[in-house]
Design a protein that fits this description.
Number of domains: 2
Radius of gyration: 21 Å
Number of strands: 0
Order of helices and strands: HHHHH
């Protein structure tokens, strides 16, 4: 478990250092997560070693929502004042994220399987 935590923390720190040193507009944890994904793709043995511990950590993921809940309680007055704007922004951004995700999945599917699901060529038009 300590090895897994050290690996996760190491990649987060690596991302923070890279973000700061290169003055990137991307948060360090995001860079660290991308580096971790590359590491896991290159090293399948690491995936096997980390799987059990990572699943145990994911079982306690709900604990990470406690600080967010406290933050909401601290800013309840602001939420009351700006609730409508926040609600509209949340709904629109969620809808936009769903649309963009659908388009990316569709393009990726077409890119990975240009012949189509039934082995059709893209030249014939459907009625």
């Amino acid at each position: 478990m300590l090895r897994t935590l050290a690996i996760l923390l190491g990649f987060q720190c690596l991302g923070e250092v890279a973000s700061f040193a290169l003055r990137l507009p991307v948060p360090g944890p995001v860079i660290g997560m991308l580096a971790l994904i590359v590491y896991l793709l290159v090293s399948p043995a690491a995936v096997a070693q980390m799987r059990e511990h990572v699943l145990a950590l994911l079982g306690h993921l709900s604990l990470l929502f406690v600080p967010a809940g406290v933050g909401v309680m601290l800013h309840v007055r602001r939420l009351a004042d700006e609730g409508l704007a926040i609600g509209i922004a949340l709904v629109l951004s969620t809808a936009l994220a769903i649309v963009v995700t659908a388009l990316v999945v569709d393009r990726t599917r077409r890119w990975l399987d240009p012949a189509g699901p039934a082995g059709e060529t893209g030249s014939a038009k459907k009625p």
